[in-house]
Amino acid sequence: MANFGKLSLFSYLLDNKELLKLDEDKNVNVSSPEALAILTALSFHENPRKMFFLFPTIYEAEAFNQFLGDYLDEDETYMFPYDEIFRSSTIGVSPEMADERLLAVGSIFSNKPSILVAHASSVSLDIMPKERYLNHLLKIKNGDMFVVKDLVLKLTELGYLAVDRVAKANQFSLRGGILDIYDASFSYPVRIEFF
What we know:
- With 195 residues, the chain is an alpha/beta fold.
- It folds into two domains: 2-134, Rossmann fold; 138-193, Penicillin-binding protein 1b domain (Penicillin-binding protein 1b fold, 2-Layer Sandwich).
- The chain has helices at 9-14, 17-21, 33-46, 58-69, 95-109, 130-135, 148-157; strands spanning 7-8, 51-55, 77-80, 115-119, 126-127, 161-162, 171-175, 178-182, 190-193.
- The strands form three sheets. A four-stranded mixed sheet has the order 6-7-8-9, with helices on one face.
- Mean pLDDT is 77; it is low at 1-8.
């Protein structure tokens, strides 16, 4: 796989120094995904760190992730989904699932403590190399100067869809000197005013 410039999710996790520091001899038996989620959330709040949970099926992974969401903030837990029905990512990948994957990959590359939840099929899915991911990030902060035409071109290259009014993630709208961008990592669109 490495010859094609891709690595699997699992290979990134094996190289993660934070995950390697964890004690390997800590085993906990629980009766339900909710009980595991409660214990995980308590442990995470006591000692924030990178954590990884792998489940046999997407159903079990999603159930655990939903329970985690009851006890942790949105930016503390990430799901890396892969629909087991579709063996080829070119067939039927929903934009929501693609957004979830991007957020999960971002959490892997980030230094911020977080919990990643995946299932057996998802760990074999190829993901882009870290350098490529980081080179494709668009960081905008207050006071930055941009040529509007170049920014719109960059958004299009990154896969954002130009629309009249943003309604969901991965869309942008340019009206006069106002640019609205709806990134999957935010709950609401971001507005940039050029003057």
